[in-house]
Amino acid sequence: MNDDERRDRSEPIDLAAWTAPPPPRDLAARVIARLRAEDGDRDDGAVPVGPAIHDEPARRARWPRYLAVAAGGAAIAAAATWALVARPGRTPEAAPMTAAATATAAESALDLGDGVTAIASPGAVVRWRRAAGDAHDPRAEITVTQTSGTVDYRSRGDARLRLNTPLGLIDTLAAPVRLSVSPMPLEEDPMNRKALALGGAAALVATGVVIVVYQGQARVRPTAGPTQAVAAGQQVALPANPPTRAPVAPTLVAHATRDRGLRVEVAAAIAAAQARRAARVAGAATGAIDAGTTAAIGPGTVDPPDLPLSRDEIRQGVREVAPMLGDCFQQELLDRGVDAEGSMVVHLVVETEPDVGTVVVVDDQQPPEMDFHARMPDGGAPRPLLRDSLASFNQCVQLTLESVVLPPMKTDGRLAITYPFSFAPGDGTDDGTGDGSDGVTRRTPTPMTPLREAEAAARLKDWAVALDAAERALAGRLDPTGRTRAVMIAGLAACNTRNRGKALAYYSKAAPGYQTFLRQSCLKKGIEPAL
Amino acid sequence: MAADVRATPTAPGAAGGAREVDEVTLRRAQRGDHGAFRAVVETYQGRVWELCWRMLAPVGLGHRADDVSQETLVRVFRALPTFEVTGSARLSTWILTIATRRALTELGRARPRPLDDDGALAALEAAGSAPAGEATARRELGERLAAAIGALPDGARAVLLLRDLYDLDYREIADALELDLGTVKSRLARARAAVRARLEGARP
């Protein structure tokens, strides 16, 4: 004990009774397997180990944001894998850094630093380098080499972004752009069908690189052909010629997955940009934003003439985010133990903002109609889920839908869209019926036991369901631990439903360690269970 | 005679014992030798897992302990060349520092909504791993400890665990959490007082 400890009069807490479960038996094997996979499984067993100065605790350096992203979301690591390499520089803040990523499955988000975010579709391969600015131009410059796939780049800062493609260079300054690099004819690449539809130019069919600029301006310097400026809302296809650079092979890698927090940040940034733009438009010309007609499109109707966007264009845009909607369902309901299914109808408004392009916002005047039920393990009648218990799921869906990218509208005005979705546990495939309603499914959960059902309902504060399920659990066979939990949930539920008789009964049966908590909950509801 | 191998709950700080990996193995691991690093992982994985679980489970994120442990150990491998073998810091302390930071990062980004005002459900979840056969009194004490520690702020929980479970001294904790020495002491004192108060309040 040193002097500090001697001066500290508080005695240590004996934590010996708080046991932890044993570590997974295969933890070491998985760590080694992951290192081998990331390092290319070299035969000699020796791999180059990056100094990784940001990881060393003694230097008190903050990890770069992209490493934080790379570390996150390992629970869905199997769904989306990024390969990441980092070579640190002189200092964490000013260091030029090089990194590479390969999105192998689901869409993934990656922070390239200095406010630049890349959202990559499956198959995208990018490598980037960040260099600090100099005395003449202090803005950081991020150079990205993208050799395949489709990536959306967005910037919240003023970093200079240089995109190096096999067919030329693109320079942007804080301009959101989408870059598609396809080793195949574009019509074979699903992501590029949309780009083709945007321009409608048959000449693009044999082209491997398409860039769409959503805001601001980009300068494109093809390896063959003159430099050209691409303004907001425009796209350009680079003429095909042999690739000038070999594909990038990452050497040091680390798993990462889509980052929900980052996606929220991106969505917030987009929303903020949209709001700023709307304010500017409104300030410059009062009433201008309402100019034009408001058209409406919903399921089961025939496209009205002169509609700014066709039903197919909208459906295609929405279906691009269908996997993310499935993630919302999985993470906000199924993974929380709520074996739910149901449907919702979302009201969207599509508008054109001059500097942004086509924007999609959820209509805040018309809340979504939601009809979800918790499925009963015994095949009983499904119980409706309260709207409050769907709040986080709804928020996730709204954020996702506002990230939908749609082609430019053919006419001015505003388009109101009513879009229905159905959600059900399944095999993870999108079974959209094509009738205007998109089905979004996820894994089939294991049947819920009454105790699990009670726990899930309690988390959702659906106390009536929790009480019923807990009592069914108690009527069945439970081990002592399960019985303790069921009694506790039944007690909490009884208090919260103000069932005094049951509250007292379950309080008396509750484990002593839980009685204090239970009493506090009951007192909040005006029940003194200890009497 | 076949060995009786079974997974049993680990006592605090007991997984892997206080053993440190030998210098030769450590230097080989620093050069990127996967075989040597496996020995490092096997030596420290229990302590890393325990710490991650204890940081995350009390707030309902016990299911993330596996991933956070794995992330920690991968980061350890990447950063291992920067560890000074002849320095004063123990490798275990250095690794636990990385684990603590990873757990705090996870808590910062993935904290679920409060399950209940008084944390009772969180206590249930944290206590879910308690073995059925364990003595009732001890199990209940563990449940009360889990609930009390789960009610602490993340930073205070980290300080308490590093000090009272893993025996890091104040300077090591300050370095690990990038805090002033005084802050560590005050947080520790407050954390201990809060846990004691909740234990007293929850005593049957």
Structure explained in plain terms:
The complex is a heterodimer of chains A (531) and B (204). By secondary structure, chain A is α+β, with helices and mostly antiparallel strands. Chain A folds into three domains: 27-238, Jelly Rolls (Sandwich); 260-442, no CATH class; 450-524. Chain A has helices at residues 3-7, 27-38, 65-71, 190-199, 260-284, 311-320, 322-332, 391-401, 450-459, 463-475, 480-496, 500-509, 512-524, and strands at residues 97-102, 108-113, 116-120, 125-131, 141-155, 160-165, 168-173, 177-181, 209-213, 217-222, 228-231, 235-238, 294-297, 340-353, 357-362, 369-374, 383-384, 414-425, 438-442. Chain A is elongated and about 85 Å long. Chain B has one domain: RNA polymerase sigma factor, region 2, helix turn helix motif (Rna Polymerase Sigma Factor, Chain: A). Chain B has helices at 23-30, 34-56, 65-79, 91-110, 120-126, 136-150, 154-164, 170-177, 181-202. Chain B is globular, with a radius of gyration of 18 Å. The termini of chain B are far apart. Classes of the chains: A alpha+beta (531), B mainly alpha (204). At the A-B interface, helix 2, helix 9, helix 11 and helix 13 of A face helix 2, helix 3, helix 4, helix 5 and helix 6 of B.
Number of helices of chain A: 13
Low-confidence stretches of chain A: 41-98, 183-207, 241-263, 280-295, 298-302, 427-437, 442-448
Mean pLDDT value of chain A:
63
Q: Helix content range of the residues of chain A, please?
A: 25-40%
Radius of gyration of chain B: 18 Å
Output the structural class of chain B.
mainly alpha
End-to-end CA span of chain A:
48 Å
Let me know the number of strands of chain A. 19
In the CATH classification, which architecture of chain B applies? Orthogonal Bundle
Q: How many strands appear in the DSSP assignment of chain B?
A: 0
CATH class of chain B reads: Mainly Alpha
CATH topology of chain B: Rna Polymerase Sigma Factor, Chain: A
Radius of gyration of CA atoms of chain A, rounded to a whole number: 27 Å
